[in-house]
Amino acid sequence: MQEQDTGAQGSGFTQGRLSRRGVLFAAGGIAATAVLAACGDNGGMGAGKKGSLTLWASTTFAGAGSSALRKAAGDYAAKNGVSVTVQGFPANDLIDKVTTALTGGGGPDIVLVDVSQVPQLGASKMLVDLTSRIKPISSQFFAGNIAAATVNGATYAVPYDTNNVALLWNKKMFGKAGITAPPTTWDDLLAAARRLTGGKQYGYMLGAKGYGSFLFWPWLLQNGGQILDSSGTKAAFNSPEGVEAWNFYANLYLTQKVVPPTFLGVTDSWDQYIQPFMTERVAMMAIGDWGIAPLAKGNPGLEYGVVPLPKHKQSATLLGGNSVGITSAAKDPDLAWGFISWLTGAAQEKVLQDGYKRIPARTDVTGSAFVTGDPARKVFAEQATTAKSRPSVPTWGDIEWGVMADAWDLVIQKKKAPEKALADAAAAATKKLSGK
């Protein structure tokens, strides 16, 4: 979910409001500084060094003064005598704030950004190449999350949390419709959605703009299609497999009419997307684990299950999450690495688990009580081992949240035929990949 506020884009939620990029970014520059002197070992290069660090993240993580990330920074400061300032920006503004600051010669030492934004920052040398530092510990993280942070063989960030897309289904609504199990194939999903649609109730949820374009990719992958060609320089999503998947996806609304027309208004946040499922007007939706906490808060009594996405030619889902990198403005990269290696270490998984109910991007989490003790998290964690990352190309954000978002809107607004819109989007995406 590139979370413009996944996987995506694939992924996240702010305090009380889900962000578009996801899964995965902060109310205008609130800062908190934790400065305490003590001794300690962070387990990485930079341990025992004195100095100051500034970390920029979204309010998803930075939040208010009591957020888990701020508390963690305070703990690290207390143990290592390092000043760690955590500053947050609104999700939709973070990447622009980072690039503007770094281009101007300023900016933070460390950034926590959506995995889909790492290629852009890495290719422009705004992030430090961490390949040699990460190589000895890369096996500790899900391969997909490492791949998402790697551009042309160089890895520019350490995976932090991971997410992917699964299917949420309303057990009560299924029961009333006489459907005994969630769908496992496209045909099953369509049949169930049609049966669950009637009156003011609908079977399936979609999103508009970038939400819709992001959630298309799993369908493409499930049909055996590819997003880009093997060279990464040409769009491949308009292949016969892509056209079939795109038509099936679009026709859930256009011809099958199993989607509430109000989905056209899902343009600003995942909150808008989740609302119909939360209020039991829609029986099924695809989303990442960032949707779980809002559902628990908004409708604690909601009876729903989480299962892998229905397959077609194969099973597939899209990987998202966030990663932590050292910027070109870092005054002391070793000091920054010390904090990052500590924050992404096994001992700090509790920061994500307790503070955000997020799944760490570490492979050891699959056997943890945090995952095995929760059926929903177990599905997401199991999918994390095989989830596919989006292409690691610098222009990906422009393609997913620009080209594809516009193409999707033209289709659902019935301004352009699905196949024509997809073909035009592929041509535009290929042009962007060429740098034109």
From TrEMBL:
Belongs to the bacterial solute-binding protein 1 family. InterPro entries: SBP, TAT_signal. Pfam families: SBP_bac_8. It comes from the Bacteria. CDD domains: PBP2_TMBP_like. It comes from Actinoallomurus oryzae. This is ABC transporter substrate-binding protein. Keywords: Signal, Transport.
